[in-house]
Amino acid sequence: MMPCIPLETVKELIPRAWAHNPLPTLKLILRMKVYCFDFEDKTGIFTIVLWLHQNHPKTLALNVRWFAEVGCMKYLLRILFSEGKTAKRVVERYNSDSNYRFLYDKISDFFAKSLKSNIGFLNSCEFSKIGLAAKWCPSRSTVLFESIARRVFARESHPSYAEIKEADYSYSVRDRLRKEILAPLKKFLDLPDEWSNLEILYIQERMASVVRKTYNNLFEKQFLEFLAELNEGYREFL
């Protein structure tokens, strides 16, 4: 297990590491969420995710799936909601900011794909394959929620959608997403209060397992040596 790294040190080293080699740095960022920050930390990892969005927005958007796998979906949603605090502002930002639009669309795609597969796993009793998309799905955000619903229940997916008005279609798909997919998935994911600590441990272990399996060529010793050399100025690119 890696020791915790001070946030200020991370903020200083990440840009320099990225300039040297982006791919290993991206992998290290994903490992940091699992190993280097407290599970309830609300500042450290968000600072890094926000830095990625501001400096390398397409990289972040194209890796939504992996950030979601290590428990960062709430930080991706926070970026969307902090930059578009009202439905009107979201639409304005979506139409005027290509980076915001790209992240918004990739998050919508991720939720739509994940929710459809998860309800399939639930119906086929493949419970171990069910993820946490339903837990993080932004059902209170009408605009983003509708975007996800339209992807799950596209107009061409059912003959009845072809002739109804846009407002009726919009209401129908949001209602179906809530009742047919989110409700049963949330019921499955809902654990009793006395199991709350067990749930946290399970999610932490699941995140750690996913990252270890995906990035098993990056070892803790190499990571710490890399940071030490970077900090001391041993790397030639500094």
Can you characterise this structure?
The chain is built from 13 helices and no strands. It has helices at residues 7-20, 22-35, 44-55, 57-62, 64-69, 73-83, 87-96, 98-123, 133-136, 142-152, 166-189, 196-214, 220-232. With 238 residues, it is mostly helical. Helix 8 (98-123) packs across helix 10. It is 71% helix and 0% strand. It is globular, with a radius of gyration of 20 Å.
Number of helices, where a helix is a run of at least 4 consecutive DSSP H or I residues: 13
Structural class: mainly alpha
Element order: H for helix, E for strand: HHHHHHHHHHHHH
C-alpha end-to-end distance: 28 Å
Shape: globular
Proportion of strand residues: under 5%
Largest sheet: none
What features would you highlight for this structure?
disordered C terminus, mainly alpha, globular, 238 residues
SSE blueprint and pairings:
Blueprint: H1 7-20, H2 22-35, H3 44-55, H4 57-62, H5 64-69, H6 73-83, H7 87-96, H8 98-123, H9 133-136, H10 142-152, H11 166-189, H12 196-214, H13 220-232
Helix pairs in contact: 1-2, 2-12, 7-8, 8-10, 8-11, 10-11
